[in-house]
Design goal:
Structural class: alpha/beta
Shape: globular
Largest sheet: 7 strands, mixed
Distance between the termini: 40 Å
Strand order of the largest sheet: 3-2-1-4-5-7-6
Number of strands: 7
Number of helices: 10
CATH class: Alpha Beta
Strand content: 15-25%
Length: about 230
């Protein structure tokens, strides 16, 4: 029987070649602005050391490198090797020196308290053990450092929520499948989003498992996605 990690790895390996195009289309291009906002909320500054977990094709890692500059360091890790393939060339195209490597969010190969900022965008819901990954990402974060999460949610307004649910369940798999060649992958992404805690439920989980001194949830587009801003004690 295939476990969640193997299933998710297979899904992302299948859609990796056209992931960027499909992501831009199904998010109406909003993902770029949301990543920039996540970087701002992290309060990353020149010279900081940043770890981007579930980095995928590297967009968030590159955005962080633009902020921390030549004196800072950004490392992007992802457990799916196929997703990482375009990342180095993409960083080089932007003139950014970013390190990309395969890695597991539940078993990060870095020392305790070694990063000023840790981030993960649309990857937390895909980890086999969410609580364990939160503890692991908190472990490698320096005291006073910031953990920033960009993740899906569901709108509070019932009519809006129904429209968004209809889009993610019916429309997104069609467009995502057409662009990537794998409709089932986008059906999974819809199911995983619906089943994952968001808003105050995820805030509570982050406080309990990460032991963060402060956790804030910032809704995007009325709750379609959220940015969570956490500060380590």
């Amino acid at each position: 029987m295939i476990d969640k990690a193997q299933r998710v790895q297979g899904i992302f390996a299948a859609i990796a070649p056209r992931y960027d195009l499909a992501n831009d289309v199904i998010s109406f291009g909003r993902a770029h602005a949301w990543r920039r906002k996540a970087v701002r909320l992290s309060r990353a500054k020149p010279g900081d050391r940043v770890l981007d977990v579930a980095t995928g094709t590297g967009d968030l890692a590159i955005a962080f490198k633009k902020t921390v500059g030549s004196t800072g360091e950004v490392i992007g890790v992802d457990f799916c090797a196929e997703m990482l393939v375009p990342a180095p060339a993409k960083a080089a195209k932007h003139g950014m020196d970013v390190t990309f490597q395969q890695g597991d969010a539940m078993n990060l190969q870095f020392a305790d308290a070694s990063f000023n900022v840790v981030s993960i965008a649309y990857g937390l819901r895909n980890v086999a053990d969410t609580a364990k990954s939160i503890r692991e990402m908190a472990r490698v974060l320096k005291p006073g450092g910031r953990f920033v999460i960009l993740e899906t949610g569901r709108p509070a307004l019932p009519v809006y929520r129904e429209l968004v649910d209809l889009y993610t369940a019916k429309v997104m798999p069609v467009f995502g499948g057409w662009l990537s060649g794998n409709k089932d992958a986008y059906r999974y992404l819809d199911r995983s989003s619906r089943d994952f805690p968001y808003g105050e439920k995820l805030v509570e989980l982050l406080r309990r498992e990460g032991g963060f001194a402060e956790v804030k949830a910032h809704p995007l587009m009325g709750g379609v996605s959220f940015i969570y801003e956490c500060v380590k004690r």
